[in-house]
Amino acid sequence: MKRIAYLGLFFLMAANVQAAEYNASLFGCKSDGVTNNTSSIQYAIDFISGKGGGTLHFYVGRYLTGSFELKSNVTIELHEGAVILASPNVYDYLNYSGSRALIYANGQSNIKIQGKGVIQGQVPLFTANMENLTSKGIVRKDSQHLLPDLIRIENSEQVTVDGIMLLNGLENVQSYIGCRQLSLSNQIIKSNAYGSSTGIFLSACSAVELRSLYVDASGKPLREEGKNEIRLQENCVTPNGKKL
Amino acid sequence: MSTKRYILSFIFFLLISSVFATEYNASFFGIKSNGTTLNTSSIQKAVNFISERGGGTLKFYVGRYLTGTIVLKPNVTIHLEEGAVLVGSTNIYDYNIDTPNCALIYGKGVDNIAIKGKGVIDGQGREVAYHLMDQIHNGIIADPLDYDRPRNRRPKAIYLRECSNVRIEGVTIRNAADWVQTYDQCEDIVIDGITVDSKAFWNNDGIDIVDCKNFKLLNSFIDSADDAICLKSHDASKRCENVEIRNCVARSSANGIKFGTVSAGGYKNIRIINNKVYDTFRSAFTIATPDGGIVEDILVDSLYAYNTGNPLYLRIGARWNNGRQGALSNVVIQNMYVEVAADKPDAGYSYEGPVEDNPRNISPSSIVGLKDQPIRNVTLRNIAFVYPGGGNPNYAYRGTTEEELAAIPEMADAYPEFSQFKELPAWGFYIRHAEGITFENVKLRAEAKDYRPALVLDDVKGYDVSGLTVEEGKNKKKKQIFVQNSKK
């Protein structure tokens, strides 16, 4: 009994000290590349946000998932070798205000995705699934709106995506709509598996900073809609060495 | 006359009966093949009993035999008939977790043991690791969780230490939670015709041969999530000696055939003959000696590798060497053909190799010693390495000027891996800090144009690359060899 009390005390203390840092495995996330981790990741983000914020750490491994939403003051840290692997199943993606995304946020502030890890789409598998559904008449032919972005963030502020490798998106690798203080830096984007894939889509964003981006996309590296205020663009190139 | 015949036939029957007496069926000890009865105690009793009776064979016929750790005893053979599966318990507490290197089948200081037959050993490693993980999160087991996974207590399928006269024949070993099988400081071992199929959890090395003497690995197929065939040296006073690896096929989401990483004592007289490697994320063949180990007299003959991330990586480092200087000399690599993958060669694997050391175009083969410790006497004979080429300087760039070559970090104390320097200045071969490098009939080919030259030599004394031919797309006039601070 006494031992249990001590143990409890120890964990309370440990929990306090490390309040802001959480390993993905604590929430049952599996790095085996086959377990669908959607619910665990979403629960982790909600939990951390509810505690006032902190960092969710993903270490080396492949974390299969469908859509999840970022919340204020939560940082996703993808350590080198960690891969957030997008589910090839269209039904694993949620419909957010008419659009779909693997990683989504709306109306949040202070959100970050950082580290040397990877966010990876599985384009051939995804499109094969879609074709199958279309041929059966389950999905209509004009189903472009069902194609999820890897990252889509709307109406949020203090948004940072730093150092991540983004592989194989569909129509848009990442979309930012109505965001303020948006910083994209040190990214490697390689997205050639889908016919015309946009590296970065910006719409009505202000105070945007783009630093050290390598964008190798089958479509436009950077596509803008409406009025955007790009405050800074430095050291951003495409494979042929041109600016975005 | 008749008494004589009587005595003779009596002796004959004695002989016969003693032969039969050494074979015991598992059921004789109450061992159940139903897949649900935990048989640990019964199997252990059987092994002890047979050993105490002077030895013999414990036979398992078709069925699933659930068990925790079994400790091998002298003169006992475990025979798994076709259809028999030794199934590892998913309960971490069913293993000898208080022993370093816990394992489903464990032996220490045991002579004359064998595991034979066409049966299977299935460690159920992923489930065991998940159970262990839960116990750690519950606070019952303390573990630092390196990379968010258990550092200690993950059971191997087989661990033998200081054992001699060991034969492992014919069996299939699947799904360990750690290295699949480790032979540490063992002598006179023959492993013949086994199959390893293990992509169950992190660090699933196919086979680890650690500080062993007189070791043969023959005619085996190894498909594992981490390094497939691995020689290691954990003890600075020991080394791997007289090891032969022949007629094996290896697939791995790490390296195909590797010396290291831990290389404290070293390796001597290792022969690697007629092997195939495919779908490997890292190198087809690599020797790394970062911990003071002395590597000498190595022969690689007839090694064919397809869809691999890198052909060859030889490296001296200074990581956990405690002041001792690692050395690497007298290596002959001949009749080697490698095709390097343009995309990720291990895509689709469970526990794929990590995307790392980016940005980097496709890495060349490398021979990299240390400033004051060159790699000595490496002969490459009848070699063809085919690379995709296509290195793009806008993605990653490393030039060949004196300053740019000097700026490549030494990384002596880093984990040695073919990609560790990120971008290197050659697409085919990068050689630095070496002595006595000979290329005889070596072909390097890049399918597409690359911005880098084929070969860069930096601080190489006594080189002869007159036997090198280079092909790069349709590029005929390009200068393909860059030499700095080097002498023929």
Automatic annotation (TrEMBL), chain A:
SUPFAM superfamilies: Pectin lyase-like. It comes from the Bacteria. InterPro entries: GH28_Enzymes (IPR051801), Glyco_hydro_28 (IPR000743), Pectin_lyas_fold (IPR012334), Pectin_lyase_fold/virulence (IPR011050). Keywords: Glycosidase, Hydrolase, Signal. Residues 1-19 form the signal peptide. Belongs to the glycosyl hydrolase 28 family. This is Uncharacterized protein. It comes from Parapedobacter defluvii.
